[in-house]
Task: structure prediction
Amino acid sequence: MTEFAATPLREAPPPGVTRLFLIRHGSTGPNERRPFVLQGCEINGPLTPLGEQQSQAVGRALSEFQIHAVYASSLMRAMQTAEFIAAPHQLPVVPVHDLRECSVGRWEGKSWEQIQAEDPDGHTHFFSNPVDHPHPGGESYTDVLNRAKPAITSLLEKHAGQNVVIVAHNLVNRVFLAELVGIDLKHARKLRQMNCCINLLHHHQGTTELVTLNSVLHHHTLGT
Result:
């Protein structure tokens, strides 16, 4: 599949190939707190001004590409980010509920430091095997992968010969990409996903290839 990477990105990919731009949403209040707090699917707030700037930057980066469809998690932060990407192409943003962020249950809105202090046993239990041990009252890494992977795969198969954008979330992207490249799912957190990063993937005849991971070169326009 590596030969497809040589095809000009601003054009449609070869017939039978789907080119996916997998994006993480822009920055939110919980992302910007120090220390940051967990923001699963229970918190559904908007982008911050910085998040809007990041979304505008990734929108500009993709504005000259021939984008055929834009999908997003149904959560507000992902939908808002996707709208900045879809607007130059006059495309609707199609929400996909199964792309929402991991449910972190009773740890929602808390920092890891706070969680470790208030719930040390739960913290230890979760990190002993996050693949199968869910966040208390929430989901495990496997739970997230089992609902997100079929949703992404169906879109890859639907858009053969086209460029498509999906805006999702930190852990959603991490578990999908970890499984894709053969990394043990327990190490998914090591795959960094910055706000409004771009992951480029090619899909052909049932096989998906990761071309670029966590690209943030377009962030230079923010002056940060």
In short: The chain has one domain: 11-222. The domain at 11-222 is CATH 3.40.50.1240 (Rossmann fold). Residues 141-158 form the longest helix (18 residues). The radius of gyration is 17 Å.
